[in-house]
Amino acid sequence: MSARRTRIKFCGMTRPEDIALAVSLGVDAIGLILVPASPRALDLARAVDLRRTIPPLVTCVALVRDAEPAFVADVVERLRPDLLQFHGREPAADCRRAGLRYLKAIPMGDPAAGLRMLDDHTSAAGYVFDSHGVDGIGGTGRVFDWNLIPAGARRCAILAGGLEPGNVGDAVRAVRPFAVDVSSGIEAQPGVKCPQRMRDFVAQVRGADESEPDQGAEQ
Ligand SMILES: O=C(O)c1ccccc1NCC(=O)[C@H](O)[C@H](O)COP(=O)(O)O
Hints:
- By secondary structure, this protein is an alpha/beta fold.
- The protein has a single domain (7-209), classed as Aldolase class I (TIM Barrel), CATH 3.20.20.
- The chain has eight helices and ten strands.
- The chain has an eight-stranded parallel β-barrel with strand order 1-2-3-4-5-6-7-8. A two-stranded antiparallel ribbon has the order 9-10.
- Helix 2 (44-51) links the parallel strand 2 and strand 3.
- Helix 7 (168-175) runs parallel beside helix 8.
- It is globular.
- 42% of the residues are buried.
- The structure holds ligand LARABZUK.
- The ligand O=C(O)c1ccccc1NCC(=O)[C@H](O)[C@H](O)COP(=O)(O)O binds next to strand 2, strand 6 and strand 8.
C-alpha cells in the first residue's frame, strides 16, 4: 500500500459553508482570492470574515496578482494568512518584502517564461504550476501538458489547471505532485462550490494515492 498522501488545496472559496465542507473532507489548504479581475474575488474585509472560519492547522493562502506592495502588506497585517500566493509577474524581491512564506504561480500557458520564473523565485516556498499565460489570471479550467513540468520539480509541485473529479486521479498517478489545487472544477458556478464535486475530487485523490504509480512517474 502507498504511504503517499497528496495534499489538496481548494481555491477561490467565497462561502463559509464551502470552507466548512472542505475542512470536514480533510482539505489541507483554502485559497482566498484578492485579485479584482477574478470572478471569485473577495474584498479584504470579506476575506477577513471568511478567514475566521478556517480552523488552525488548515492553511490559509491569500492570492494576489501584481498588487501594490502596500496592498500586500495590508493583506498580511489584516488577514494574517499562512502563505501568500503571487499569481503575476511580481519580482522575487517584492514577494520576499511581504515577510511571509510564499507560493509562486508558474504560468504554463507560456512554458518558457513560466520555467524562467522557477529560476527567478528560488526564495518561494513552493510552485503552483497552472495553465494561465504570463499575463493571464488563474481559474482557467484548462489543463496544460503535465510533461512540461521538469522532472526534478514534480515531487514539490502543486499541480493546478483544469483539474476536476474526472481527471484528478489521472493527474496524481501521472505526475505524483506534492499537492493538487482546484478552483473551477469543483464549482456549481464561479465562486460557488458544489458539495458533490468537492467530495468526489477528494475521493479521487485518495484513490489515486492508493494506486501504483504510472510507468515513468517519479516516486
Ligand atoms: O481562480 C481564479 O479566479 C484566479 C484568479 C486570479 C488569480 C488566480 C486565480 N486562481 C488561482 C488558483 O490557485 C486556482 O486554483 C488555479 O488557478 C486553478 O484553477 P482551475 O483551473 O479553475 O482549477
